[in-house]
Amino acid sequence: MQGDRVKRLWCKGVIRLFSILLIFSSFFVQAQPQLKVGAYHCPPFIFESSEEQYDGLSMILWQRIAEIMQVEYKVSHYGLQELLSAAEVGEIDVGVSCISITPDREEHVDFSHSFYETHLAIAVKNRSYLDSFISIITNKTLWKAICLFLFVAISVGTFYYLLERKNNDKLYSMPTKRGRIAEAFILGVLFITKGPFNYFEFKTLSARVVTVLIAMFSTVFIASITAVLASSLTLEQLRFDVKGINDLSKVKTGAKQGTTASLLLSNHSIAHDTYKDMDALLLALEKGQLDAVVADDAVLRYMIKKGKGKDLFLDLTVLPYQLEKQNYGLVLIENSPYEEKINRALLQVRETNEWHQILLEYFAEK
């Protein structure tokens, strides 16, 4: 009997101990901190609805990371600069959006590994065919090429005229001196454009010898002129006044406020207007209030593509010039205890087929 009583007491003790352990374990589970996440509206990476619901590429990425880490979180809205400031003072644990990793920002906050790579690009409004035609006839390279061509043609024509005018009635048959000079010019033009005449067209030995030399020169000359004009007068280039970042100083340019695009323009001493959001920026370009805008290529292409579905931004296009590279990362507080886990989970998500399909859904041309 005594042994049974001891056994019952021992069992009760074990049960009580187990209950205490359960209570403590549940306490620690409940005490697990809820991460504070800041989101900055930046389609297609972050969409914010009026009900404070968040969607987009960056939010999908963060949701997958949180699932892998098995953490709870709460999302709050911030502007770009406010989000960076909140991370700097530890008000949030993670910032989620399309925020570029820059040396200046890394002086105040940390970043995760890059989760998307893009570059700054220029968007402009398509020009009319009349504008393109005007660009052709006012193109400085074209007129320089024409002047050079005429100079060479006149030089060649004059050279042959001095050598052949007294001996070659076939090439210089006009009765007047003015007519023969015109023939000399025509000869120079034809020689440069069509190549040398038959060797026996020339009567003097000097003309025949020089013909061989000029023939080689004219071949290289015409090839060079053609290459220069082809690169300068392509239809794509004639449609726009902007060929690169240096041309932005000559036109009215805009960028989103507080972005790396605005910083790039400032660093190049390019005066520009700033706008609070991309919709206002692109509408200003469409209405002719701006001649060009600079922003992240991925964001520009997405916004223009979506706008065209609503009959907006129909004449806007992104130029094929890559400016400064941009790498997007999640914003972290300095020395974040979650940094390593977040980076491991991020790399894991980036390798999945689901992530690649999501990227195609957002950015593939349809």
UniProtKB/TrEMBL annotation:
GO terms for cellular component: membrane
Domain Solute-binding protein family 3/N-terminal per the UniProt entry, residue ranges: 34-366
UniProt main location, coarse: membrane
SUPFAM superfamilies per UniProt: Periplasmic binding protein-like II
Example GO molecular function: ligand-gated monoatomic ion channel activity
Cellular localisation: Membrane
Domain of life from the UniProt record: Bacteria
Keywords: Glycoprotein, Ion channel, Ion transport, Membrane, Receptor, Transmembrane, Transmembrane helix, Transport
Topology with respect to the bilayer: Multi-pass membrane protein
Transmembrane segments: 142-163, 184-200, 212-235
InterPro entries: Ionotropic_Glu_rcpt, Iontro_rcpt_C, Solute-binding_3/MltF_N
Protein name: Glutamate-gated potassium channel
Species of origin: Aliivibrio fischeri (strain ATCC 700601 / ES114) (Vibrio fischeri)
